[in-house]
Every structure is written in structure tokens, then in C-alpha cells.
């Protein structure tokens, strides 16, 4: 039953309409855009071999270094394609119109990328980082045989879920209380019993989930995402790399709980999680505390005036959108399910959040 | 960024640079940098100090973080004993 969810994630794609930047067109007429279906769990530079043939005839002399841009924003190549789409296209645009460049790499904005090798290096290191968070070390990844490591990477390149599960199960990177993955594919589940238990490799599970959180704060109100301001600089996005520890029994800790932990400043007493109607409910209308119990305290531009109003109608910060793998999951869903099924192949859960803050100036990191 | 409301944003992180393999050892190996700085700053510093373009830089002898990661996140997740241990090598140490 849950293999289905994993399959949806792995088969998920973004239809791209890729235009070559006009400064790199030397022929008349300009070549038409390339239409490419990009895997959500993949990375844009990996599409280079499919895209280049469309445009190689028109490029000016020079060395090709591919990079992509959306609405003037150079795209960070190490962020999975699906995450870029979820984050930058609040109102999903299909096909997604991107501009490709082969010259003029913006080294001041993007870290260097030398093709597939750079992407693979980034992927393997993220996997090690995730492993470190989950197990306290990354011996399991470092001890992978060369053929296994190669097969793991190939399976991601080719979107081969079965091949991926075959190799990744050896890494024993499942989370605590992980009863949601089909046992037939992961029979090493037996070693994941409880927090702190040492498994057969002597590794102790920390119970922590690797999370990459992207928060886009908008200062102005809007009804539709179509009207939302465009993200024209990476400074407008707050990126947070913070693991979430699943508290208590897996099934009781929800996605909402995880978000409360990650972004305590945006959750008040009258919590968004309840999702009640905006009419007065006779609940306490106390002003939300400015500091919550949760881990790190982030910049709180979101503190507005709260004067005995229900949180939906107050001028406090409001979470407008939570998107994971292109879907907006209900916050009541058990976090362990979200992690098991919506996680990316490098074992990070990427969460895109849009917050409306009662400011006039955009949030700056 | 506001310096009074969120101490973590102006907090400095102690970075301990450790040579690996035949990489030269730095005279001064401990530094403090702003938590909001990116890991790229540590990498660039090492490149300048060692006069080398090609360097492999790791955290806790384990993995190479993305240069865009903020030092404070890396410290929060992987630091211990009040510091972030960064290992550097001239050739790939932990492939």
C-alpha cells in the first residue's frame, strides 16, 4: 500500500519548457524551446545531455557550463528539481518556463557545477550528512562497496525505485517507528525497534529526521498565489537545515508538530493546526507568547499586533502554504508517514513553507 | 539582521581547522566566524591560507557540507565541545 506513495514520488515529474537565453542565440530564427519532463527527485544539471542537442547549433564559441534561471533567479543546482518548483512556483506553472544558459556562469550566486560528477558528489555528501543525523556517524555510507555506491547513484539518475531500495536498505537509514514501508522491500526493519536501541551494526539510532526547510516570507497579503510576489533573490528565502526528533510514539507526532518545532515563532496558542473556522470560538484569546519551547529561535519578523483576535483574523504571521513533493499534506498526518513516503533519495525531507508576515519589507536572512 | 531579538543570528561559531593526510598544518587553527556566514567562507579561507584551489573540506571527518550551508546550522547539527571541527585535505580523504 505504501509502495504506491513511494512510486508516486519517484515517478513525479515537472514538465519544463526550456528557452535558451537570447544572448546566446547566434542563429536566425532562434531555436524553439525544448520540452523536457524532469524527474522531481532529480537535479537540473543532469538534464544537460538531453537539452544541449536542441541548442548546440546556435551557441556562440566558448566552453559550455550549463545553468538555469527562472524569472531572473539563477537556480541552485543542488536543490532537487521538484523542490525548486514547489518553492519558486507557488502557483504551479505547467509547463514550467525556464531559461537555460551555457555561458556566463554566475559564480557570485551559484556554487560551481562541473556536470554529473558535481551533482553526484553533492548527493553522496548529503546522504552522508543524513546518515550522520540519523545514526550519529556515516560509516554505513562510507563502507558501501563501490559497485553499491554506483548502483545507488544510477538508480537515482534513472528513477529506478526498486534498484534504489535494494541498495539503500543495506544502509539501515529508516526512522524510528517506521512501520509504513512495505516489509517485503525492507526486511532490515527488525533492527529499528525503539529510540536508542543499538542495531546489528552497533549503530544507535538518534530518532532524528534530516530536514531541509525553505521558508519564503511575504510581506504583503494576497488571495491567490498567482498574485504573490515573485522570488527574485535567494535572500528572500530562509533556508534552515535542522533535524526533527520524533517525540513519543511515531504515530502521535504529526507533521504539524514537526512544523511547530521548526518554526515556533509562527505557531501561537490559537494554533493554525486546528484549522477551525475563523469565527469566534470562545477559546482563550491570549496573546501568543513570543518565545516557544522549540529549539532554535529564529528572526521573528512575524510578530504582529495581536489584540484579542482569533489567529486567523489577527495580523500575526500566517502560514499560507506547506508543500512537500508537490502536495500540501494535512498537518494531522503522522510525521513518520510523511518522512517514510515523501523523503528524497538522499534521505532528507524537503519542506517548502510560505509565510505571510505583517511587514512591508520582505524578510531578509 | 536584528541582534537583540535572536541571539543565535549574531552568534559566533568556533571553528577548529584540522589537517588531514599530508595537508599543511595551519599555525593558527582555531577561528571564530559569524553563525550566519556560509561554509563557503571557511573553504575560501582555507584556499587562501594554503594557496591551493583544490581542497577537500569535511566536517567531523565524515562528509563535505554544501558551501551554501550556514555555519550556525552546521554547528547546531554537528558541533561538539563548543566547536565545529573542520578537516581539510589536499586529496579526497573520505570518498
TrEMBL record, chain A:
One cellular component term (GO) for this entry is: autophagosome
Q: Where is this region: Disordered?
A: 274-303
Q: Name one Pfam family in it.
A: ATG5_UblB
Bias type Basic and acidic residues, positions: 278-290
GO molecular-function term, one example from the UniProt record:
Atg8-family ligase activity
**Where do the Autophagy protein ATG5 UblA domain residues begin and end?**
9-102
**Domain Autophagy protein ATG5 alpha-helical bundle region as annotated: residue spans:** 116-172
Write out the GO biological process terms: autophagy of mitochondrion; cellular response to nitrogen starvation; piecemeal microautophagy of the nucleus; protein transport
Record localization: Cytoplasm
Query: What main location does UniProt list?
Result: cytoplasm
> In what residue span(s) does the Autophagy protein ATG5 UblB domain sit?
208-353
Q: Which UniProt keywords apply?
A: Autophagy, Cytoplasm, Isopeptide bond, Protein transport, Transport, Ubl conjugation
Question: Gene3D superfamilies, from UniProt?
Answer: 3.10.20.620, Autophagy protein Apg5, helix rich domain, Phosphatidylinositol 3-kinase Catalytic Subunit, Chain A, domain 1
**What function does this protein fulfil?**
Required for autophagy.
The UniProt similarity line reads: Belongs to the ATG5 family.
Query: Partners and quaternary state?
Result: Conjugated with ATG12.
Q: Any idea what this protein is called?
A: Autophagy protein 5
What's the source species for this entry? Answer: Ziziphus jujuba
Instruction: Name the gene behind this protein.
Output: LOC125422133
UniProtKB/TrEMBL annotation, chain B:
Q: Name one Pfam family in it.
A: APG12
Q: What's the superkingdom here?
A: Eukaryota
Keywords tagged on the record: Autophagy, Isopeptide bond, Ubl conjugation pathway
Which InterPro entries does UniProt cross-reference here? Answer: Atg12, Ubiquitin-like_domsf
GO CC annotation terms, alphabetical: Atg12-Atg5-Atg16 complex; autophagosome membrane; phagophore assembly site membrane
Signal peptide positions on this chain: none
Q: Which SUPFAM superfamilies match?
A: Ubiquitin-like
Its GO biological process terms?
A: autophagosome assembly; autophagosome maturation; autophagy of mitochondrion; glycophagy; piecemeal microautophagy of the nucleus
Molecular function (GO) terms for this protein are: Atg8-family ligase activity
> Which stretches are transmembrane?
none
| Assembly, per entry | Forms a conjugate with ATG5.
Functional note: Ubiquitin-like protein involved in cytoplasm to vacuole transport (Cvt) and autophagic vesicle formation.
| UniProt similarity note | Belongs to the ATG12 family.
Protein's recorded name: Ubiquitin-like protein ATG12
Gene (name only): LOC107405578
Amino acid at each position: 500500500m505504501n509502495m504506491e506513495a513511494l512510486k508516486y514520488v519517484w515517478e513525479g515529474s515537472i514538465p519544463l519548457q526550456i528557452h535558451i537565453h537570447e544572448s546566446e542565440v547566434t542563429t536566425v530564427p532562434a531555436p524553439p524551446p525544448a520540452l523536457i519532463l524532469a524527474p522531481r527527485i532529480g537535479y537540473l544539471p543532469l538534464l544537460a545531455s538531453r537539452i544541449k542537442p536542441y541548442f548546440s547549433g546556435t551557441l556562440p564559441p566558448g566552453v559550455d557550463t550549463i545553468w538555469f534561471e527562472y524569472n531572473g533567479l539563477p537556480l541552485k543546482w543542488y536543490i532537487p528539481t521538484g523542490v525548486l518548483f514547489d518553492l519558486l512556483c507557488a502557483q504551479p506553472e505547467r509547463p514550467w518556463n525556464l531559461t537555460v544558459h551555457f555561458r556566463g556562469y554566475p559564480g557570485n550566486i551559484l556554487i560551481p557545477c562541473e556536470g554529473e560528477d558535481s551533482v553526484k558528489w553533492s548527493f553522496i555528501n548529503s546522504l552522508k550528512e543524513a546518515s550522520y543525523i540519523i545514526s550519529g556517524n556515516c560509516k554505513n555510507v562510507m563502507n558501501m562497496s563501490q559497485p553499491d555506491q554506483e548502483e545507488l547513484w544510477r538508480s537515482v539518475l534513472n528513477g529506478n525505485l526498486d534498484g534504489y531500495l535494494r541498495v539503500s536498505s543495506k544502509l539501515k537509514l529508516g526512522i524510528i517507528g517506521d512501520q509504513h514501508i512495505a516489509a517485503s522491500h525492507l526486511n532490515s526493519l527488525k533492527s529499528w525497534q525503539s529510540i536508542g536501541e543499538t542495531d546489528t551494526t552497533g549503530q544507535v539510532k538518534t530518532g532524528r529526521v534530516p530536514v531541509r526547510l525553505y521558508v519564503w516570507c511575504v510581506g504583503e497579503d494576497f488571495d491567490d498565489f498567482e498574485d504573490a510576489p515573485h522570488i527574485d533573490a535567494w535572500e528572500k528565502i530562509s533556508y534552515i537545515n535542522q533535524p526533527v526528533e520524533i517525540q513519543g510514539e511515531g504515530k502521535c507526532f504529526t507533521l504539524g508538530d514537526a512544523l511547530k518545532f521548526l518554526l515556533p515563532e509562527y505557531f501561537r496558542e490559537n494554533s493554525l493546526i486546528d484549522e477551525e473556522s475563523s469565527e469566534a470560538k470562545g477559546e482563550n484569546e491570549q496573546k501568543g507568547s513570543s518565545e516557544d519551547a522549540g529549539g532554535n529561535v529564529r528572526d521573528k519578523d512575524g510578530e504582529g499586533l495581536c489584540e484579542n483576535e482569533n489567529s486567523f483574523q489577527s495580523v500575526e504571521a500566517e502560514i499560507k502554504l506547506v508543500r512537500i513533493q508537490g502536495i500540501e499534506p494535512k498537518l494531522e498526518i503522522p510525521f513518520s508517514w510523511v518522512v517514510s513516503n515523501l523523503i528524497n533519495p538522499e534521505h532528507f525531507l524537503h519542506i517548502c513553507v510560505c509565510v505571510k508576515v505583517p511587514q512591508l519589507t520582505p524578510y531578509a536572512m | 539582521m536584528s541582534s537583540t531579538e535572536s541571539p543565535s543570528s549574531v552568534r559566533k561559531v568556533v571553528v577548529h581547522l584540522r589537517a588531514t593526510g599530508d595537508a599543511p598544518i595551519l599555525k593558527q587553527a582555531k577561528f571564530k566566524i559569524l553563525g550566519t556566514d556560509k561554509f563557503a567562507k571557511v573553504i575560501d579561507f582555507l584556499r587562501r591560507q594554503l594557496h591551493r584551489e583544490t581542497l577537500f573540506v569535511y566536517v567531523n571527518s565524515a562528509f563535505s557540507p554544501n558551501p551554501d550551508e550556514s555555519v550556525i546550522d552546521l554547528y547546531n547539527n554537528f558541533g561538539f565541545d563548543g566547536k565545529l571541527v573542520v578537516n581539510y585535505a589536499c586529496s579526497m580523504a573520505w570518498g
